[in-house]
Amino acid sequence: MANSPSETSKDSEYPHVSFVTPFFNTEKYLAECIESVLRQTYQNWDYVLVNNRSTDGSVQIAEKYANQFPERIRVEHNSEFLSQVQNYNHALRLVSPESRYCKVVQADDWLFPDCVRSMVVAAEANPAVGIVSAYEQEGEEVRLDGLPYPSPVVPGREICRLYFLEGKYLFGTPTSLLLRSALVRSRDPFYDERLAPFEDGHACFDLLKTWDFGFVHQVLTYSRRDNESILSRVRPFNLELLIRLSMLVAHGRDFLDAQEYDRCLRDAERNYFHYLAKCACARHRKSSEFWKYHRNGLGAINYSLDWRLLGKWIPGALLEKTFDTILSAWEGIFT
């Protein structure tokens, strides 16, 4: 049996991996993120830290590690402030031309020590694999389950069909994945800014039209839930319903037959627009930020959020609201 990357001192025999961490004002977590890269059992790598005009102590932390490990780590400073997606795209353009694989590590996340070694082994064993994922720990929960063990390789088409037909989403966050650098270089920009904050999922669906999906049945990455981030601010807006509709409209026809697509689209529209109609009829009005978020998300897939659209769903929402009110009154009487 061939040695794994961690079982030899000849690291140059193993493919080069580029780590990238775009960051903005993450001094609370950045050192832990960088240390998790330094603790990797895989040793053939470089690391680019991309500073998006931070105003806290993040820059000093990044430069400390770059000075300590100049042969491995470098810090790049943006000349102007970029949006999060723009900054991620900029960071991916800095991936080493020598790299065969690319690993994004978000600045408030970290990796378990065997993460990259295990992912590279999976990819090297299967040249048709373009993306490798694994179980991730998100807060106190383990996520991205759903594939039977061992299933180290699954056709990309099947992974995407699992999401549309069974709701199994296996991409996680950018930190969850190892990408072939050739695929990163083949798309510029890699992420479509119009599709934020789901741009990473959309990129995966695009790549899996022609590539297979690798999976390691170990917990290899950690993502936070309790920190302040763009995603944490919009998580109360019921992301899942919009994500499903967005992914389905953008990619469903590539992986489903006409009958499957029509059925899934009807279900996704019904669940999502019924939810929005209930929000419109609720006693406590949603914020303007809530409606702007959903309007922009729908606009990215060529839907217009207006009263003509919601009007179709409001009668059902009002009927449900009336039924809930009556049921609540009865419970008050008979309990």
Q: What would your notes on this structure say?
A:
This protein is of the alpha/beta class and about 325 residues long. The protein has 2 domains: about 10-230, Spore Coat Polysaccharide Biosynthesis Protein SpsA, Chain A (Alpha-Beta Complex), CATH 3.90.550; about 240-335. The chain contains 13 helices and 10 strands. Strands 1, 2, 3, 4, 5, 6, 7, 8, 9 and 10 form a 10-stranded mixed β-sheet that branches. Strand 2 (about 45-50), helix 2 and strand 3 (about 75) form a beta-alpha-beta unit. It is globular, with a radius of gyration of 22 Å. The chain starts with 16 loop residues before the first strand and ends with a helix. The relative contact order is 0.11. Residues about 1-10 and about 325-335 have low confidence and may be disordered.
What's the quick description here?
With about 325 residues, the protein is α/β, with parallel strands linked by helices. It has helices at about 30-40, 60-70, 85-90, 115-125, 155-165, 180-185, 200-205, 230-235, 240-255, 260-280, 290-300, 305-310, 315-335; strands at about 15-25, 45-50, 75, 100-105, 110, 130-140, 140-145, 155, 180, 210-225.
Query: What is the structural class?
Result: alpha/beta
Number of separate helices? 13
CATH topology of the largest domain: Spore Coat Polysaccharide Biosynthesis Protein SpsA, Chain A
Q: What do the pLDDT scores average to?
A: 88
Count of structural domains: 2
How far is the first residue's CA from the last residue's CA?
A: 68 Å
Instruction: Indicate the percent of residues in helices.
Output: 40-55%
The tally of strands reads 10
Order of helical and strand elements: EHEHEHEEHEEEHEHHEHHHHHH
The CATH architecture classification of the largest domain is Alpha-Beta Complex
Largest sheet: 10 strands, mixed
Computed over alpha carbons, the radius of gyration is 22 Å
